[in-house]
Design goal:
By secondary structure, the protein is an alpha+beta fold. It is built from 17 helices and 33 strands. Strand 16 and strand 17 form a beta hairpin.
């Protein structure tokens, strides 16, 4: 199924380099816009819902507010269960909606489905981190107002969100009322047959315990039904107007509000600012929740919206100085790559106890679960631009190592087995052929640790935390695999599923075996490093986990004897022991509306064929590129690419990278185009359920690792840049061991500039280059 030439669709949102905007209210695509206009700070996530509420057609909106790592857990019901299946499912909760601000003008409620809209614009400013709304509205009685709303989820203050509401009377004098509402009665989404969505809840997960109007702020305390976590949501307000406000307070079950009624003159502008905080018992002691909320709101009121907005802009200025990618001559993809980087920042946990879900904090798809997406896609983005975030994401894996040990025991194995999907470290995948069987996540995490340490030189993390993860997961592989006499004594790993979820429960998945081989070698090297340079930590691990010299030697022996299936006739690596013996899928007679296959065919039908959901062996060609010749890559790519449906959003970016490496820049650009605007063009038709975080990070990889040809071999940055014909130029920056390199590529060649650091040796197409501070080195393309 070789991908057809990709035709870029018409823009759903206008192309702006630093902004995302819409200039009309579109009910049909409202839910999609709620996802793309989402705000977050790695802890709080707010969908782009309207402050006044939604009054359109039922089923075209999902009111969403999320807290990273805050979940409830419910029993998983199996019609036919088996030993070792997860017994409970965790789901990120849609929490109390505190962003509601209702407006009435002379008794008429403002919303977009009443009266008349004379002007409308919504804009996400990615340099300032603020969502703007401008609406000029005429009530059914003819009263006309201009409404300017700015919303911010603070990137500097974990628990804080702010809404600044500015109202101007255009043709009347009269009475207006702002009603600020906190609604704890959260509607749950209905269950569907789509495995990418959640299972739905039959009963509320948040139970009200208390709600109060205090002197300076309003708060609501709730508790999760099963996990018994406590949530405290609070809000306070400031108002600037000529007249004094008459304040009314209402407490109605799980809906608590404060009304501010004012007299307004024609031409007058009133400013109403709402400060919102979320705290949970997962973040601090339960008896400190109220005081913590009060302190945050007091700080926010003292600083005010403008000062907080200045802080936000300063934070983002530093972020973009490291992260920004510039593309010359392609405004659509320029906007797309910046939007993706911005959403990754908004969704990634930075506290060491949370991670990043497949949909980030933008929607409820995949129930907020963390996957291998983190290590294989998202971690590289942060490792080379914001390594402190990568460290925090890896610390989450260390924090959940105990539960990975427990899972290995359930699976009758030694060491540790990390979950395929999780929130707090327990396995949540109820479908083991495409869940627990994807044990390659152990090797993926090991690869992420290796890449992070090599790129940053953070050996303190390696010896204090990373090594223990490496050793326990290597212990798992040594126990799970076996030296197989039928394969000449080679080390084999049976009954696993690789990244391609359309081929399940196989022996010797090539991706898995190759990644495990790399992990076992790295674990052996790390053990020797600790013995020689960090003996205290080596002795500590010997005592704490019972590490022995014999098992370290077995790791190296298993790596050296790892079996990787290879077909001599075709000259390619087989995806697994039996993949090449299966019948190829009949792509010619599969209608377009039958994709994705997983929604239209029983798994067994798919498993019987040569058909891929996503890059599998092709991904290994990228991750372990130094192990293969260019000829190997060409042969393997040409075989597997036509068999790949790309039903997974994680797939096109990997194909883009390998296409660029083998010299197919048209194919690379086509795959990249599909990746970088996956959500902005709603290519997979499910952006309404949340954005695709891995694909977003994959678009960064497509430029840096694909067109830029960047690899990290033996700790040395290597580049092999190419320029697609559609671009005039591109530029990106890479942080390596504290040194920042700027890479600029145009039609003439590449310029490397060391922006920060004392001096760095890199390689350009296998030729060493020594970079000195602020001394650009131009290397022309050979024609």
């Amino acid at each position: 199924m070789k991908m057809k030439p990709y035709e870029h669709p018409a823009a759903l949102y206008p192309y702006h380099e630093w902004n995302l905007s819409e200039d009309r209210y579109d009910e049909e695509n409202n839910q999609r816009s709620e996802s793309v206009f989402a705000l977050g700070n790695g802890y709080i996530g707010m969908r782009g819902n309207f402050e006044e509420g939604y009054h359109g057609t039922r089923g075209t909106s999902v009111i969403g507010n999320y807290l990273n790592g805050f979940y409830d857990s419910e029993p998983i019901v199996y019609p036919e269960g088996s030993y070792g299946n997860p017994t409970r499912n965790q789901a990120m909760l849609n929490v109390t909606d505190a962003k509601i601000i209702e407006l009435t003008v002379e008794g008429h409620a403002f919303h977009l489905n009443s009266g008349q809209i004379h002007d409308y614009k919504r804009e996400l400013d990615m340099r300032k981190g603020i969502l703007h709304r401008l609406v000029e509205w005429e009530s059914p009685a003819g009263h006309r107002v201009r409404i300017r709303i700015r919303r911010m989820v603070s990137l500097q203050h974990k628990h804080l969100a702010v809404i600044d509401y500015e109202l101007t009377a255009l043709n009347f004098e009269g009475e207006i009322t702002f009603t600020s509402i906190m609604n704890g009665e959260v509607a749950t989404q209905e269950a569907t047959d789509d495995p990418r969505l959640g299972g739905g809840n039959a009963e509320p997960n948040l139970l009200l315990e208390d709600a109060r109007h205090e002197e300076h702020f309003i708060w609501m305390k709730q508790r999760t039904r099963h996990t018994q976590f406590t949530l405290l949501t609070a809000m306070s307000h400031t108002i600037q107007s000529v007249s004094d406000a008459q304040i009314s307070e209402t407490l109605d079950g799980e809906r608590i509000s404060a009304g501010f009624t004012l007299s307004m003159r024609n031409g007058e502008t009133i400013s109403f600012t709402k400060y919102i905080s979320y705290h949970t018992s997962k973040d601090c002691a339960e008896d400190e929740l109220l005081s913590g909320a009060a302190e945050v709101l007091r700080m926010a009121e003292q600083r005010g919206f403008e000062e907080l907005a200045s802080e936000q802009q300063a934070f983002l200025h530093k972020f973009w100085n490291r992260v920004d990618i510039e593309i010359g001559g392609d405004p659509a993809l320029q906007q797309g790559i910046r939007f993706n980087a911005y959403q990754l920042l908004q969704s990634a946990g930075r506290d060491g106890v949370t991670n990043i879900g497949a949909k980030g904090l933008t929607g409820e798809g995949y129930e907020g679960h963390y996957f291998w997406d983190t290590e294989m896609y998202i971690l590289p983005f942060f490792t080379y631009t914001q390594p402190e975030v990568s460290k925090a994401l890896l610390e989450f894996r260390y924090a959940t190592l105990g539960k990975a040990r427990e899972r290995a025991q359930v699976m009758s194995q030694k060491g540790a087995l990390y979950p395929w999907r999780t929130i707090d470290g327990e396995e949540n995948s109820a479908y083991f052929p495409a869940g627990t069987a994807q044990a390659h996540i152990n090797a993926d995490i090991a690869y992420g640790i290796k890449q992070y340490v090599q790129a940053t030189g953070d050996y303190d993390f390696l010896v204090t935390k990373g090594a223990e993860i490496l050793f326990e997961t290597s212990r798992f592989w040594a126990d799970m695999g076996h030296f197989n006499p039928a394969k000449g004594g080679s080390f084999c790993i049976d009954a696993v599923t690789g990244p391609d979820e359309y081929t399940a429960i196989v022996n010797n998945n090539a991706y898995t075996n190759l990644m495990v081989q790399d992990q076992l070698c790295y674990s052996y090297e790390t053990a020797r490093l600790l013995q020689q340079q960090y003996p205290h930590h080596y002795e500590r691990l010997q005592q704490e986990i019972g590490l022995t010299e014999r098992e370290i030697s077995v790791w190296l022996d298993a790596a050296n004897k790892m079996f990787v299936p290879f077909d001599e006739k075709l000259g390619i690596y087989a995806q697994d022991d039996t993949f090449l013996s299966k019948q190829k899928w009949d792509f010619d007679n599969t209608p377009a509306d039958k994709y994705p296959l997983l929604l239209n065919f029983h798994p067994l039908v798919i498993y019987r064929h040569q058909v891929l959901k996503q890059a599998d062996l092709v991904m290994a060609l990228f991750l372990l590129g130094e192990w293969f010749t260019l000829e190997d890559k060409v042969r393997n790519y040409n075989y597997y690419e036509p068999l790949t449906t790309h039903d997974s959003s994680l797939s096109p970016c990997i194909h883009s990278i390998i296409s660029a490496e083998i010299g197919d820049l048209e194919g690379a650009y086509s795959y990249f185009d599909r990746t970088v605007r996956m959500d902005l063009e709603d290519i997979n038709r499910n952006a309404k359920d949340g954005l695709h975080m891995a694909a977003m990070a994959g678009s960064w990889m497509s430029i840096v690792n694909g067109f830029g040809g960047m690899r990290l071999y033996d700790g040395v940055l290597c580049f092999s840049p190419a320029l697609p014909r559609q671009w005039e130029s591109y530029r990106f920056k890479i942080l390596n061991r504290g040194q920042l390199v700027d890479i600029f590529v145009d039609g003439q060649g590449v310029v490397y500039t060391l922006l920060e650091g004392d001096g760095l040796e890199i390689k350009h197409r296998d030729h060493p280059l020594l970079l000195s501070p602020q001394a650009p080195v131009r290397v022309p393309f050979v024609k």
